[in-house]
Design brief:
The protein has 419 residues and is α+β, with helices and mostly antiparallel strands. The protein is 37% helix and 21% strand. It contains 16 helices and 16 strands. The strands form 3 sheets. Strands 1-5-6-11-10-9-7-8 form an 8-stranded mixed β-sheet, sandwiched between helices. Strands 13-12-14-15-16 form a 5-stranded mixed β-sheet, with helices on both faces. A hairpin with a 5-residue loop joins β15 and β16. α6 (136-152) packs parallel to α10 (228-243). The longest helix has 17 residues, at 136-152. It is elongated.
Length: 419
């Protein structure tokens, strides 16, 4: 038997309905904030991600699905969306169409990580990007957008964490300070953190290893090494969040895993999903457009993991996507009436009534069992003496009551089942 690739998942029946409600909630909130949807190809040139995310990040060095196509071009299934959105922004000169482009997406991503709860190799994210303004108001809007979606879903066990990464120059200066602090304890670091020490020292803060966490507990804070302008921007973000009534905490270890971030970074954490507890995260990336060959253009955005959000909802007892029952099940008493049953089903479906009928030539008893199994609210029984009088029997499946209705005017059935 050929099975789904490890880390990829089939969704169907009751498993898909929570996704529908999540997606609808996401779209509604984004559109209320006047964001427009963008869809980009699921694969891009590999250099787009290596240039934007960073050669030394775990994503680029270990996790990307990369292959060479028939033309010899190195192609990668996208591991994240911001680089693709900025590439589209540059390629289609969107900055000339609008001074500020506010875009959102709901898309699959691909990373060859170790599959675990809330983390798959094909996973799904929604997110937003606002490109064209360096205003801290947009940084705060991103945090509010993400928070609004999560709260609309009913999630409560949430906390907002923020930090500032300052400018690249400030961050580079801090990297050397951090390395000096870590040197005396280098031999006690985990093997992963020893590699990160040279390649991407800030990522040591992301380590889940208890030894690493103990070592960085008293490490110098990046915020203490930021310049006046960076600190001023961060203060404005904090002030705006307070004015908006958003509770937050400053997390000096929040560095994010992508190289393109500058200034504001944030995550929203759930206490309901275990150790992999970040439901979403993002920040400002004012240098990314220029890095990818475009004109220098400030931007800010975030991405949220949909599988992890659905897991948090499940763990908090939030039932999403409760599917509506079939309103009407058409039962035919004689097999020769199957075409008439199909005709009636089409009539009611076109009127917006969720309708089902038998396609398997089952007995009347089996059809009635099926109507009960799918919790149909009404059964329309077609055939027998009633059909000879041009009538059908309408049965209420809840209380068992039934009545005859003229087949000449099926609109009457609509009136009765819509009460």
């Amino acid at each position: 038997m050929i099975k789904a690739i490890k880390g990829a998942k089939d969704l169907f029946y009751e498993g898909i309905t929570p996704w529908h409600e999540l997606e609808e909630t996401v779209r509604n909130v984004f559109e209320n904030f006047n964001y427009s949807e963008i869809r980009t190809p699921v694969f891009e040139e590999t250099r787009l991600f290596s240039r934007s995310i960073g050669e030394e990040t775990d994503i680029v060095s270990k996790e990307m699905y990369t292959f060479t196509d028939k033309s010899g071009l190195s192609i990668t299934l996208r591991p994240e969306m911001t680089a693709s959105v900025v590439r589209a922004f540059i390629e289609h000169s969107l900055g000339k169409k609008f001074n500020l482009n506010k875009l959102y997406y709901i898309s699959p991503m691909f990373r060859q990580e170790r599959p675990q709860a809330g983390r798959l190799r094909q996973f799904h994210q929604f997110g937003a990007e606002a490109i064209g303004s360096g205003s801290p108001v947009l940084d705060v809007e991103m945090i509010i957008l993400a928070n609004e979606i999560l709260q609309t879903l009913g999630l409560k066990n949430l906390s907002v964490k923020i930090n500032s990464l300052g400018t690249p120059a400030e961050r580079e200066n801090y990297r050397e300070i951090l390395r000096e602090y870590l040197k005396p304890n280098f031999t006690n670091l985990s093997e992963t953190s020893k590699i990160r020490f040279e390649k991407n020292v800030l990522r040591i803060f992301d380590s889940k290893d208890e030894r690493d966490q103990a070592i960085v507990e008293e490490a110098p804070k990046l915020l203490d090494y930021l310049g006046e302008e960076s600190l001023s921007l961060f203060e404005e973000v904090k002030t705006l969040l307070k004015e908006a009534g958003v509770k937050f905490e400053i997390d000096s270890k929040l560095v994010r895993g992508l190289d393109y971030y500058t200034h504001t970074t944030f995550e929203i954490i759930s206490g309901s999903v275990g150790s992999q507890n970040a439901l979403c995260g993002g920040g400002r990336y004012d240098l990314l457009a220029e890095q990818l060959g475009g004109t220098a253009t400030p931007g800010v955005g975030f991405a949220a993991g949909m599988e992890r959000i659905l897991l948090a909802c499940k763990n908090e007892g939030i039932e999403l996507g409760k599917q509506g029952n079939v309103k009407l099940y058409i039962i035919r008493l004689e097999k020769e009436l199957k075409n008439k049953a199909f005709e009636l089903a089409l009539f009611f479906r076109k009127k917006g009534i969720k309708t089902e009928l038998d396609y398997l030539n089952r007995s009347v008893k089996a059809q009635m069992r099926e109507a009960n199994r799918i919790s149909a609210e009404y059964a329309l029984i077609l055939g027998g003496e009633e059909f000879q009088r041009n009538e059908v029997v309408l049965k209420n499946m809840t209380d068992g009551s039934q009545q005859n209705v003229s087949l000449a005017n099926p609109e009457v059935v609509l009136t009765k089942i819509s009460k």
